[in-house]
């Protein structure tokens, strides 16, 4: 039922509709600690523009538009029609998948992992961020988070009651953490440090020295290092794992994902690797939150992890061509970028005539109907940057170049 209240104010009458059916149960306080994910909100806006007739080109989100290997799809098809594959699965994943992940890590990262107790398959590595945080972060303990960095590190830390402590990354320091600065700060309450190399959004590769220094840092201060490593195979042949450093397993975990490396984002297949004691604590959380991954997905993932080098190279040939066009877009916008970037995106610094990256991306969206990600969503260190996704075909990238060429003087 709708009630109508007539309000009198300064001699004027206002009508206010009040809905008696509003929910009476308030949400938990933790829901006020986070906002709806930027891409969730922004893509709703983009969809509304499309409904209104605008032809929007999406160069924002990193959702691969290329398919997995055909052999992977074939395995999924065959196994999905087998009657015995539709029940609950082990919380630890099938042995074949853990073995395939171990072989993959040995082949490309030169890291030896015991598939029995040092690897845990995940329903996408994003859930692993939550599982790790719930397993290791107590309320009021501090978590070091890169700025710029993946927003989920911050959101999850807040949800589990941890204290967010940002550490600055910038071009001046090659987008690496300033460990000397951190050493001079109070680390007595620091429990976890999130890392992400190759780095998103900047595309910066790690070096072995950086990882060695980080492992020493973790040992010295009793900090759990968590490296999120899903971008190693995109426009990059220098596959490097934090776990390849001597002593890393005692202070480090590494997440990986098949979303970007194997074009399987919607399949939600990832993993976490590390010391068996760390894994056993994560499984305590995970086993209370899900019931295992669909077996045909796991079998298909095994096939994907056994793809040849030729398959990875064929994917990167496509991304290399797209990267050239993305660089043209950056040049049209007079943005500066490091040509040595790796990964699924191109990160560029905007011209000083714009207040921030969001001002530029909003102009582009409204004038050229092209959605590009503003860097502020990754932290204030990204305020003066934008990010272009390579998950759009050459036709769309060329179309973007044409549109921007026409309107660049007015933006």
Architecture overview:
The protein has helices at residues 38-51, 70-80, 95-109, 125-136, 151-159, 179-183, 208-221, 276-286, 295-305, 309-332, 357-368, 394-407, and strands at residues 2-9, 12-19, 57-59, 119-122, 142-147, 163-168, 190-195, 224-228, 252-257, 270-274, 336-337, 345-349, 370-374, 385-389. It folds into 2 domains: 37-66 and 310-410, Aspartate Aminotransferase, domain 1 (Alpha-Beta Complex); 87-306, Aspartate Aminotransferase, domain 2. α5 (151-159) links the parallel β5 and β6. It is globular and about 60 Å long. It has a 7-stranded mixed β-sheet, with helices on both faces. Strands 3-13-14-12-11 form a 5-stranded mixed β-sheet, sandwiched between helices. The chain has 411 residues and is an alpha/beta fold.
């Amino acid at each position: 039922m709708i009630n109508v209240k007539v309000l009198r104010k300064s001699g004027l009458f206002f009508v206010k509709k009040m809905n008696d059916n509003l929910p009476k149960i308030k949400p938990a306080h933790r829901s006020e600690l986070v906002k709806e994910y930027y891409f969730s909100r922004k893509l709703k806006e983009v969809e509304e523009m499309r409904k209104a007739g605008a032809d929007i080109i999406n160069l924002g989100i990193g959702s691969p538009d290329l398919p997995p290997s055909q052999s992977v799809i074939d395995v999924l098809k065959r196994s999905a029609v087998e009657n015995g594959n539709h029940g609950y699965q082990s919380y630890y994943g099938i042995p074949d998948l853990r073995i395939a992940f171990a072989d993959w890590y040995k082949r490309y990262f030169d890291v030896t992992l015991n598939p029995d107790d040092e690897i845990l398959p995940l329903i996408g590595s994003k859930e692993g961020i939550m599982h790790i945080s719930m397993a290791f972060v107590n309320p009021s303990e501090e978590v070091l988070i890169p700025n710029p960095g993946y927003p989920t590190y911050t959101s999850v830390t807040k949800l589990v009651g941890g204290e967010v402590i940002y550490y600055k990354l910038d071009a001046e320091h090659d987008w690496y953490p300033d460990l000397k600065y951190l050493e001079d700060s109070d680390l007595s309450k620091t429990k976890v440090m999130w890392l992400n190399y190759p780095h998103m959004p900047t595309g910066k590769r790690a070096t072995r020295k950086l990882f060695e220094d980080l492992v020493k840092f973790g040992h010295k201060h009793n900090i759990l290092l968590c490296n999120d490593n899903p971008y190693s195979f995109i426009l990059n042949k220098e596959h490097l794992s934090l776990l390849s450093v001597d002593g890393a397993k005692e202070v480090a975990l590494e997440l990986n994902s098949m979303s970007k490396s194997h074009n399987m984002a919607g399949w939600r297949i990832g993993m976490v690797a590390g010391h068996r004691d760390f894994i056993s604590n994560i499984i305590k959380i995970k086993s209370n939150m899900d019931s295992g991954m669909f077996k045909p997905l796991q079998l298909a993932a095994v096939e994907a992890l056994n793809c040849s080098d030729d398959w990875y190279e064929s994917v990167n040939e496509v991304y290399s061509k797209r990267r050239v066009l993305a660089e043209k877009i950056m040049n049209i916008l007079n943005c500066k970028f490091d040509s040595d970037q790796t990964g699924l995106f191109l990160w560029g610094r905007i011209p000083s005539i714009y207040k921030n990256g969001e001002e530029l991306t909003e102009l582009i969206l409204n004038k050229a109907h092209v959605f590009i990600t503003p860097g502020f969503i990754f932290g204030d260190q990204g305020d003066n940057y934008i990010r272009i996704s390579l998950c759009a075909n050459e036709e769309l990238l060329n179309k973007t170049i044409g549109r921007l060429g026409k309107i660049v003087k007015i933006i």
